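TOPIC: backbone geometry
CONTENTS: sequence, structure tokens:
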Amino acid sequence: MKIIGEDNMKIDMVFDYEMGNDLASNIQALLSECFQEDFPKNRIYFKQLPHFRFVAFNEKNQLVGQVGIDYRVMNLNGDPIRVLGLIDLCVSQNIRSQGIGSMLLLEIEQFCCNRNIDFLLLFADNKTLYLKNGYRSVTNKCKWLKIDHESQSTRGIGYEEIEGLMIKEVGKYDWREGDLDFLGYLY
């Protein structure tokens, strides 16, 4: 666990397969609060479990923020790239705009140092936080596995430009426009 700032905010990395029931329940409540009716009420993920998460706790050890992380190879214009996908970043509504989202993004960026990760990738409806933290919007034609989040079943393959795609280069490669094959589901 890492303590950050004068307000004793703590950020921890948690693997989903090791998560206890209390933390899972708190994450589910936070996701429901932040995404309201869009988020399934009985799970801590929308379409697929992330590999791990960064979770933020306040000085009273209450969960106040989280972001799921998915690590995978994708195909960008015929070349394999290593991508860390950011999933469902959220901060409790009553303490937003206090820098917690930026702290989580900084923690992810520091995690990437000296690791085999080329890009951070996410989808955002509101891009303000990400633009402020060095992410940029990109336009790529995406190919992905369509998953029905309610029935948790495969619906087919999608292939189109998707609004809200953002990236940040954290490795030695530059991002290129063109075709992006997710080799899996969308975040």
